[in-house]
Amino acid sequence: MLTHLGTKTIETERLILRRFEYSDIDSMIRNWIADEQTQWDYGEPSYETPEAVRELFEKKYVVSYSRDDYYRWAVIEKKSKECIGQIAYFSVDTENQHGEIEYVIGPSFHGKGYATEMTKAVIAFGFDKINFNRIEIDCRTENEASRRVIEKCGLIYEGVFRDFFWRKDHFEGRRVYSVLKNEWKKEN
């Protein structure tokens, strides 16, 4: 049985994962959410104005924090206090006790291990606090950087959903990875 807690603050060595706040809007625009390529890779539209981000908050992010089964974190770099990305359990299946993670991080923060650090923290939260049995992360077959992050986090490759995403002018596959609670506990 899952224990839904809602989005709680998680602290790692270099990051604070917490609920989005309206004060994050400027650094979100500066660091990632207005970047068309970053958002394209993430599979979401870019948001270029404070008004557009505020509307996203009011229709989706902040308004959903009232639900105890909603898990979406702003990723704050401790050193700069900037919002450098986000991570979420965007899909939660209470009956079958699993969640699926999605994440994005600004291009200036790539290659520093932040994506691995935040993902491991959210996986640990999912198993230790929510009590998931299975956690999944998928990525486009062309997204090698995400594949490396997922593998560094110890997820096991399950296969490819062929021609899963339509990307402007071609189909792209979706790589599927997962880790089970008993596997995670052995390794961590």
UniProtKB/TrEMBL annotation:
Coiled coil, from the record: none
Species whose genome carries this gene: Eubacterium ruminantium
Domain N-acetyltransferase: 15-183
One function term, GO molecular function aspect: acyltransferase activity, transferring groups other than amino-acyl groups
Entry keyword set: Transferase
UniProt name for this protein: Ribosomal-protein-alanine N-acetyltransferase
Keyword GTP-binding: no
InterPro entries named in the record: Acyl_CoA_acyltransferase, GNAT_dom, N-acetyltransferase
